[in-house]
């Protein structure tokens, strides 16, 4: 998962893009980057780290110009090194920089094509480099010095045809303008908005609407599936549906966990969707366990707060903040001759004994992935004196890997993979295990926007909307994730973003 | 406000102290430091920044040894530069390092004495350097190569006589052991605990019990007012009351805002104290405003969560997390030729419209200091569609400066200074303003430990428990705070912790 | 002036390229960079600073592979920022990195062409980026996945036709091999050599033969004017004359000052050339001033040492090292409210009084550019007690700017511009001024290789061998140098190589 | 070996001390530090590295004040880590910082005393910390708030009695002034001088007179053996002989190799002393080998240049700069799985074949220590075509370790230890080996100042002037050097000056 932002302003945009990236920081804390354009020259700063650590005054001073794009990154599947920060760059044609959120599922084939047909060298494993070069190639084929918006939309249409998977991308085409597009299934989110200023109208695109809110931009709309928005250098907004048979099937996990609650995604309030998930979960409990003996509902901070408060309300049970989250987490250092010690959940969460002692507690989490944290939390609840510990997940069982840009473990590491809900409860040690069902989750979201027919539900159902994911793909993915995990351990001390970065700017 | 920690372990303590500091990070995000002792040699690492930024693997490797102390700092009154990280050091006698939390109110006089009588040079404005040198001088007067615990306690007794104000301090006396003491009023908190390991018993002292919890230590007790604990190098715990007429009058603001809710301070659960504050506040509302028309209670994250949930419960009104907090806040850069722009609250908080639209909302904060943030938040609530916006503070009006180590503005900047509650409400734009009263707050805390007769309530009452604060002192303080504010603006880019640090290690 | 190196080895080349760059460090102390290729992936590290400061262990570990190129840079005319370190990169076609020494005199026109015809974006003012993109474009026109050596040489031939000026360049063409070529006049030097190892023959190219010596490579030959050498990935050496009417007219200033004395350039030993310059100078003195009263010859360290020792020998006068050079020069800092103070020559040189007191001294320098240093040195000699101070330059008067890659001031700043030799002597305060004449200098060099018909003598004669330099060009150059000087003062603290670098790697 | 400097000025001294340190950089390239005092506050910056790398603008801006001291360091015997940069600091009494050049030979005993009697903790292995604490203790015993110059000189007298070995030290006593003293044998050099300015007279002390020259100070005198100079805060110079039976026995190696030729040490011009060494060496050759067949004299740069030019002159043989020195030496990196490769002399020196081919060459070096470099150089000479290679050392055989602050290897690693001159010649592969004899060397120096009765000649004779060096001491030293060599290998990557530094500032 990543966050993207782009602004075509009427005054310097460096601070605005920086601010937008901090608002989107929850979408990726691994790396951050900004490119601006000023007088035909591009200025870039990117590095591993949080936004506040990557940009210093000296960098901001160089990021001149009224147009720019930015990116925060969470490592996605297949990225073997942690040094491939975005935006990325190619100088031919025009000079193009691009940042994207998502994952191309046919990047191996595209790499092959880029090499053999287009003779474009790729210097990273990043599928963003693939996407950038496919776009560059399609623009180059237009064979013009100055492209019209239609030329550009036409090229985006060809990108849509060639690139499978999930991608919401923002690109600066030097001498032309800022382009933003969303894949034909609209799996990853993107919105655009505007702000009127003394000097004229400014436009902004971003992964989530909160970034627009924070900067005082007014949301115009989501960028549709297979749709593109282009703001030319003169400040004019152009937009076009670039893929014929596109159908919006957005990733439902944005609502479950990824997005900020105060965002609107595809016209659905994430906050309301989560309230409804709590509601549906309450209904299910009351339906299936009418004589429950729950004394108190305790959310596991932070994401589940919204659904838990509604769940408690519907159950007519008290909700209490029984777990305190430590917001400052440090590293575990490997000393010479020592083994890596596992950071216990205890340093991230602490239980308020008062709220557990002699009570039947219902712990609520937004979802369960590996299950190891859930297990430790249940143990903490028991140590704090709980009589019974019930566990509710505001999402259905996560049983399959994600291939659309969310960094999830391989199937074999998912606690619900190949297990019934009850079995999961046993593994994590709950006295009772309650999952929201798929229908409930889908309804909870769709109520916000009934026009959305389908969602990407692949992590729950194993059905991949792009139709190109077979067991070979998933096996390779599992292999990659294992290899990259191993490699990252080996190279930790050796890596140097400043170095690798250079050559990634193609 | 600062956080301190010390461990006498049976195996290397670097990671443990680091972990404890991250747990105490809420007490100070400005600077961090660790000293360990190994084979008669001291190892120090400190710098400005968060714990996770200050310590890298190469530092941790050098921090060898089974005994050490640590510190996180929030700049306190009178500290003119931001570069005086702790622990501090003197080499004579024995080699002593010290870190402390609090503020000496007679440091000017002590500096004078140290200079003219003890001929000890102070190279910073930090009162920690004063405290360290007073301790060093008192130990030196013993004129012995090897001090007994009683010698040390005797010296601490003299420190108590000489040093006015608030201080909870931890010190490493080379060749002797680890010392921790709390001023005769016990204003700032300190606890100690132990952990049994294969290699023997380990002892730990810390500002708050959460640090002990996180590391698996068992709380033995608070360190009493005028009390000292000394763990000698052989691992034996000694303790002694070193001041005769001490009376515990702890700072009540720890319960209001400073401490983590999951801490026990002077045998009072901070969480429970806050629940009770919410309760008392509800009682006051029901008493004074029985026909209130509050539709929903909305806490301003994060501290007020605990009291707000209880307040809502007692009022029998829904509580909703209507504000979303952005956890990643960036800087505002000053570009050449630009003025500093104020970071709006809007980038820190975002309102969920659903919870405000057409409702009478009661916003709850833990306390109100300057009032400027409250004002902006009320405005946000109105923009989100609230009909009426009521504002409750879970603490009484803050009207006087703090001189015991909490970084609060001068009296003139406190919104409640010289204003009635109603007037404050008008200033911040609330339709109604409700403050918890002093009695309610005191009861809420004392209920947890009725043996506490008095609290330091100075920010609410203007009565300073140490008896040495007159208007001259407060005037000078106000001046200092203004000067230091100005100076820090001037020197921001020039400062260099690594540099100044060197000479502070005396 | 810059230094380039390239190696196609049979084992990792990072250390070898690093070592070669330190040997070539005298050609540029401003920035350094290395690219290696390993398994189709390129690895780059470059930054401002000396070789020993730019490369740390963590960088070297990433620079894997048996083939690579390197660069040390001295800022050349027209480079307005100091951050454009080399090698530079384009990803299309193939992935090409290039480093070069020299200066393109028609880069403005080429930029125009690259933009309008080739649609290649240039993101710096560096003519290296121009050269790289011209080469990339010419290779792209071949429209093949795998180029033959002849394809490559053909493209180089087209580069020769398009690019005017001086350039010795080394390039890595990914999937193909290492290419090195020298402009049709052979103005800047380049050599190639080989080394036999257990694993096969390794090839190396470099600006000067000393780099080959230091690494144990055997010099094969200079790369001729308009000639190219290509070592394909399989380790085979190919070479070809790629420009028909090329004529070697090497820059004679390499022999005067730039090159290391222990280098062979175009089959001429620089050391011997300098000895002969001393000889010719002695002949001139004996011829024109037979009754000279010189007591001692004192070289101004370091370059003039070689000619001075021979000059003294021929004059039959003692030579003494009367000036001691301080090898560690620091900066002059600008403190707030202070003016920049000029670093006096006195901190770079110190006179041994003994060798000056009551003597007629002949100071010898390799050449005179601005004359300000000479003036101060003469003053120092007088203060050290010299009776008479004569000044000899082992090169003729420097009267015109350099446009072929040597960083020399504009004409107006050259002390000999528009002045007779005698007038120069008066300006710098010498009792007598002696310059080697042009014929003498040319003979001194040509004696080593009589087949060289002409040299680039432009700084002495104002005649530019490439035929494209008119007064417009020189005026623009003067303007640029003034602007860039001003700008660099303004931006000194703001610049950040790591940042700009990124986008320069096209 | 180290360099020290101190200035009591009438305007800010930061730039002046910085400049002086660059002039003294040849005395130590390992670490650098400056302390200034301003308004009773001390400001320190120190770190490992060259002067130009240690001090940035932000540091210089903090180094305010008109008085300060500085230090450049070469690691001396017994210093096990490379992180103990100077000046060092103690806060009691007064606040004292000190930097020194030399080595205490009884530091183990002094450490014991400081610990058991004075209760002063030492946190490093540095004997500078010992010296500082002895001085601090002696000043403390005066038991006064304000010391008179005589009090201070009296304390220095006691330091002289307690501290054996070689030391030239500079110290800032806060609130008092700047103190400089030289051990009772005057083994290491120190000078003082003055400069008249508009604002009054400024004083400066330094290791060598070149530092005074470079800053425009006029040399007053050497600081005598057992002598001290104190410039009080009011700018008055005081001086006193503080040790009764002191006798100047300066280290003759300063003249052989350490000092800059343009320095005056104890009234002897180093340059002239070296000229005379060349003369004496010529006399010895003519005496012992009248029919020599030397064709050319070739100095090994840089130190031997001065003696070689005179040697050649007296032999009536040509001198030629046949070796070119590479002034930019890089590191050899250890790649994973690789062994450390030895950097060959070939990367530091290159032979000009012309000067060797078919000639009998006399190579001249200032001295021979391990002999390994000499051996490689002789081999290079042969490869360059020399018929015969003779080798001359302008100093006698170095056979014993140095205990007075010069970083020399243990006896067992000295090629001349236990070998005759002829045997040394065989080991290094010379066709003939010529050493200057001890008498010649002593005469060469003493001629400059006949009043110097004795020199420290210990590395040549094994007789240690301080009378306290026995075989136990030397054995321990050898052990230490081996251990420290080993340790430094282990910890290379781990060390962090910024960290250890802190605690060394006592």
TrEMBL record, chains A, B, C, D:
Catalytic activity: 5-phospho-beta-D-ribosylamine + L-glutamate + diphosphate = 5-phospho-alpha-D-ribose 1-diphosphate + L-glutamine + H2O
InterPro entries (UniProt xref): GATase_2_dom (IPR017932), Ntn_hydrolases_N (IPR029055), PRTase-like (IPR029057), PRTase_dom (IPR000836), PurF (IPR005854), PurF_N (IPR035584)
PROSITE patterns for this protein: GATASE_TYPE_2
Pfam families named among the record's database cross-references: GATase_6 (PF13522), Pribosyltran (PF00156)
Cofactor note: Binds 1 Mg(2+) ion per subunit.
Active site positions, chain numbering: 2 (nucleophile)
Protein name: Amidophosphoribosyltransferase
The species this protein was found in: Kangiella profundi
């Amino acid at each position: 998962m990543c966050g993207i932002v782009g602004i075509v302003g009427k005054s310097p945009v460096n601070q605005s893009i920086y601010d937008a990236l901090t608002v989107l920081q929850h979408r990726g804390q691994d790396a951050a980057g900004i490119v601006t354009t000023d007088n035909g020259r591009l200025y870039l700063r990117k590095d591993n780290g949080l936004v506040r650590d990557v940009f210093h005054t000296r960098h901001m001073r160089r990021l001149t110009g009224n147009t720019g794009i930015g990116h925060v990154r969470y490592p996605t599947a297949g990225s073997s090194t942690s040094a491939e920060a975005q935006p990325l760059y190619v100088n031919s044609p025009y000079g193009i920089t691009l940042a994207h959120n998502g994952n191309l599922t046919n990047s191996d084939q595209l790499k092959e094509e880029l090499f053999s047909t287009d003779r474009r060298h790729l210097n990273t494993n990043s599928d963003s480099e693939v996407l950038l070069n496919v776009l560059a190639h399609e623009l180059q084929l237009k064979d013009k010095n100055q492209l019209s918006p239609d030329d550009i939309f036409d090229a985006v249409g060809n990108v849509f045809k060639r690139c499978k998977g999930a991608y919401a991308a923002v690109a600066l085409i030097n001498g032309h303008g800022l382009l933003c597009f969303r894949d034909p299934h609209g799996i990853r989110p993107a919105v655009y908005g505007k702000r009127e200023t003394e000097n004229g109208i400014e436009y902004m695109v971003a992964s989530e609407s909160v970034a627009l809110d924070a900067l005082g931009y007014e949301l115009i709309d989501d960028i549709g599936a297979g749709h593109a928005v282009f703001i030319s250098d003169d400040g004019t907004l152009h937009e076009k549906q670039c893929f014929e048979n596109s159908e919006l099937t957005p990733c439902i996990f944005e609502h479950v966990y990824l997005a900020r609650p105060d965002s609107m995604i595809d016209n659905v309030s994430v906050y309301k969707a989560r309230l409804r998930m709590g509601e549906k979960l309450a209904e299910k409990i009351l339906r299936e366990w009418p004589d429950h003996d729950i004394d108190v509902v305790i959310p596991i901070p932070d994401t589940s707060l919204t659904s838990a408060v509604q769940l408690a309300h519907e159950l007519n049970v008290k909700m209490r903040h029984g777990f305190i989250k430590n917001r400052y987490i440090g590293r575990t250092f490997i000393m010479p001759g020592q083994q890596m010690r596992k950071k216990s959940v205890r340093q991230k969460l602490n239980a308020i004994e008062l709220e557990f002692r002699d009570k039947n507690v219902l712990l609520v989490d937004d979802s369960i992935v590996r299950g190891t944290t859930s297990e430790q939390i249940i143990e903490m609840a028991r140590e704090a004196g709980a009589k019974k510990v019930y566990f509710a997940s505001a999402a259905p069982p996560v049983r399959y890997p994600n291939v659309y840009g969310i960094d999830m473990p391989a199937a074999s590491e998912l606690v619900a993979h190949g297990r019934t809900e009850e079995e999961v409860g046993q593994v994590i040690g709950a006295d009772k295990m309650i999952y929201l069902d798929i229908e409930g989750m889908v309804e909870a979201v769709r109520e916000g926007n009934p026009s959305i027919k389908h969602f990407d539900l692949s992590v729950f159902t194993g059905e991949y909307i792009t139709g190109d994911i077979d067991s070979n793909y998933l096996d390779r993915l599992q292999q990659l994730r294992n290899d990259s995990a191993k490699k990252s351990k080996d190279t930790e001390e050796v890596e140097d973003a400043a170095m690798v970065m250079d050559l990634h700017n193609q």
